[in-house]
Specification:
alpha/beta, Rossmann fold, N-(1-d-carboxylethyl)-l-norvaline Dehydrogenase, domain 2, 2 domains, 8-stranded mixed sheet, 52% helix, binds NADP nicotinamide-adenine-dinucleotide phosphate
Length: 302
């Protein structure tokens, strides 16, 4: 917000489903929105809703201090902003801008981007949007942020429109680290659901007979490990006591899943990877420890 409390102007670069949802939410909240997209046709609905479509990335950036990027990855940001930053005829176009990159990439890419932005006089905030595009701007939405705290706080009112901001700290890599770690859980779970469905349908069982119960298994994990704090303490302490779910017992099950998959003729790469964690924990003498002992194998740096 400005001193008059009027919603601040926001530039949104990138109009995939996510960028479109962000720009639409900002417009609904009363922010003047300027946008640019490589494929201008994607701006149609937003322009009808009141957004300004800038003719060039330079014009989009020039229209305000806060520039939100929603692109496939960070190289796309350099493709768009690189020529502006390096334009010797019009130096300083990025100076004083706040670049908030909500695109997915690695934490290292975010750190490098912060250095690149600083070289051109811009501040850089990293973000990771934790909901699908249709949930942007709803109470379910939340977004991880990291980067300079004062800069984040100055633009927090506009960023809050996209979703609840969860600020993690000054390291620009943190937001992408959290984003990737959450997506690690998410993508692996999605693959396991598809794999398990393939397993039962290979036996002629309709997917609908299986999937609702499988989703119960996903949510029941909370009942098994609690809210995560106890597990976190145990993992940090290297404490793997417990005899109810040992690596040996769970490893035998991992082997059964792999063999069942092979017999069914479905893809075996995921169960192979899981079994390998158990095999290596058992080989390291941790078979009689709790299943959490796999952490020692997984966290080992190669
Ligand atoms: N969609 C989701 O549910 C979701 C959820 C959480 C996070 N995210 C993250 O949000 C980001 C955007 O997602 P999205 O679904 O909107 O992605 P998308 O459909 O891949 O859209 C990507 C945007 O990037 C632009 N782009 C890609 N490469 C470019 C390049 N080299 N030069 C210029 N523009 C380029 C595209 O322009 P064109 O229109 O010209 O192709 C488009 O505007 C991604 O990093 C994604 O991981 C998405």
């Amino acid at each position: 917000m400005s001193a008059t409390n009027a919603p601040a102007p926001v530039t949104v670069i990138g109009l995939g489903p996510m960028g479109q949802a962000m720009a639409a939410a900002l417009l609904r909240a009363g922010h003047p929105v300027t946008t640019w997209n490589r494929t201008p046709g994607r701006a149609g609905e937003l322009v009808s809703a009141g957004a300004t479509l800038a003719p060039t990335p330079a014009a989009a950036v020039a229209s305000g201090e806060l520039v939100i990027l929603s692109l496939t990855d960070y190289p796309a940001m350099y493709d768009i902003l690189g020529p502006i930053a390096e334009d010797s005829r019009r130096p300083g176009l990025l100076a004083g801008k706040v670049l908030v990159n909500l695109s997915s990439d690695t934490p290292e890419a975010s750190r490098e981007a912060a250095v690149w932005a600083a070289k051109h006089g811009a501040a850089f905030v990293t973000g990771g949007v934790m909901v699908p595009a249709p949930a942007v701007g709803t109470p379910d939405a939340y977004v991880f942020y990291s980067g300079p705290k004062d800069v984040f706080e100055a633009h927090e009112p506009a960023l809050r429109v996209i979703g609840e901001p969860r600020y993690l700290g000054g390291d620009p890599g943190l937001a992408q680290l959290f984003y990737q770690a959450h997506l690690d859980v998410f993508l692996t779970t999605l693959s396991s659901l598809l794999h398990a469905t393939a397993l039962v349908t290979a036996a002629g069982v309709p997917a609908a007979d299986f999937l609702p119960g499988a989703l119960d298994t996903v949510t029941d994990i909370r009942a098994m490990i609690g809210d995560g704090r106890e597990l976190a303490d145990a993992l940090e302490a290297g404490e793997h006591s417990g005899h109810l779910s040992t690596a040996l017992m769970m490893g035998a099950t991992a082997d059964h899943i792999l063999r069942t998959s092979a017999t069914a003729g479905v893809d075996v790469e995921l169960p192979k990877a899981v079994k390998s964690h158990y095999d290596r924990a058992i080989a390291a003498g941790r078979g009689t420890q709790n299943w959490t002992a796999l952490y020692e194998v997984i966290k080992a740096r190669s």
